[in-house]
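To fix ideas, we reproduce below a protein record of this kind.
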Amino acid sequence: MRPITESEIRASFVNCSKGEAQRLNLPRDFAGLPWDDLDFLGWRDPGAPERGYLVAERSGRLVGIALRTASGGSRGFTARSICTICKTTRTGGGVALLAARRAGEAGRNGNTVGQYICSDLACSLYARGKKISAGTLLDETLDPAARIARVEKGLDTFLNRITAGAN
């Protein structure tokens, strides 16, 4: 992913108001992000942990998505879960059901899309082996390029579900 600016991030959101986009907290490590290792920018709000954000480039433009997770969640939960974007197996709440309001009229009518995603939104880093999940049961057999392509496909599917029908 190419490095993006704070103003580009705030202008990219398609499923929240401009005011909400202006008030969101950027990642704590924004200045030191490993842009070359990111397929998308994803982070949890340091001031509101139930919120997350995802910004990706699609067809030459940035698309930002505001996400929410249920508060409380699965503290102490140790079962293994698989992220639907990167297919990383995680334990102990490492995968969370994140919901995004749909873009456009559907979102204004209260429609949402939910998906199980790495709770830290670091799918790009798991696919590249930059972060390792302690919950992985099997050795990954795909090469890094195929894992990255899998992340891109999973992300595209998720974003299509959120933006379908939006103007």
Q: What stands out?
A: DSSP finds five helices and seven strands in the chain.
